[in-house]
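Example record used in the benchmark description.
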Amino acid sequence: MQFNYICSDIKTIRYMENLLYRRQFVLSPNEISDRPGWTKYVISDKYNLYAHPDLVQTEYSEGNKRIILLGDMYDPINKSYNNHDIISRVLKNKSLNDIIESTFQYAGRFAIIVTIDSSVYIFNDASASRKVFYTTETGSIWCASQPHVLAEYCNIPKTKNEKALQFYKSDKFFSHDKVNIINNTIFDSIKQLLPNHYLDVQNKKHIRFWPTKKNKMVSLNEGVEEGTKILSGIITSANERNELMMAVTAGNDTRLLLAASKAVRDNIFYYINKIPRYDEKHQDMVIPQRLCDKIGVKFNILEFSKEVNDEEFKKIYFQNNIFAHERNLPLIYNVYHKRFPNKINMPGRFSDIARNFFNTYRKNITPELLATFWDYTGIEYVVEEYRKWLSTAGDLAKKYNYNILELFNWEERNGNLYTAFQVDKDIAQEEFTPYNCRRLMEVFLSVPNKYRDIHTNVYFRAMMKHLWPELVTIPFNPNLEKYTSYYLKKIGLYWTIRRFTRGW
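Model output (structure tokens):
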């Protein structure tokens, strides 16, 4: 896995070596020698963990237990706590289940390796944004941040399953940003660790750990009080350790983050990337400027070249991620890599789990319907994989009073699509979404559905008003389609019309 550099300058070579598989890790039953400069940990005398130097690493041991944290965690209550403070508290718990549950209150982007005696377990953050892929192809478990890395180490070929191959060659695969389906990859024996699951390394099993408690509904006011407390605490905690930047758009998710950042607003770089389709009158250019002017913070419009002339960077970018997105490359290189490599970016992803993104009048949720929701109608491979997921997740959601469509949005759409950009961007800059906190999602999902509609957004706007009232006085996403949907819901005709126009 050596990189064949086309540059000759020693300083440049070392710089490029640092970009190769940046912020990634490998867990191997064998020693590997092609990760120079990476930190090595021996796990239970059976495994070797190798972590890139730019991937934040924190280790703590107590008695027969040990934690290695890859990435950052943030405590919304004890805002000054650092990673070591947090994992030392986590390890006070005795059982694996208690250890995992104790992390629900924390936000961040991380993977955690826990050893208890000789047993080894791995789990990650709420949205699985710190990726963990694994295989048992060699008889022992291997893990890594990317599936193609495992494929090279373990000599695993791409799938020969005709249905899977058809999917990976299809227009739908490319139009959906080249993301996988559920926990699958283009390599049959390499799987992704899904959100809400942990990996039992010894027994070579992935096991669901959430939900395990019934979702108890709360009032709108209770949801506002608890949700705003957690969200603002997360941002304040992140501010304790990092230089932060936050994109602001005309939408609800970034505006709620803006509202939650009020206490530390003087320390945050608020911005929007002027992507090619934006003109000066685009709502994501105009509305954020009005918002920031109103509350007295500086708003930055970032223009950037659409070209990347750095051939070494480009080559490594596509080597780091098997399905890296070419359209993201100019933005990642010219903005995040060249201008803001040391800031932590805070996007608004992961919030729409709590905003009824998938919704239907139908009572019977089938694999075919899930495929239709996500615009994969008629693709056999997708329907079959959704059938497997639904066969266990459906009963569990019902048992614990969760909407199966919200769980589907969480584990499938957000666990794959909404983590893709972060994976691409690891070569340039670290980021995490403040919404990436399981306890925060539990609070959001405990608020009745009628307040969490994606068009009316009663709950999100109530939180904004609670945090920073001026922010709700300026329009949200002003366009005809959204206004029409809102009006039709207000007069009670939305579902009648949608039944005929969409059929679901």
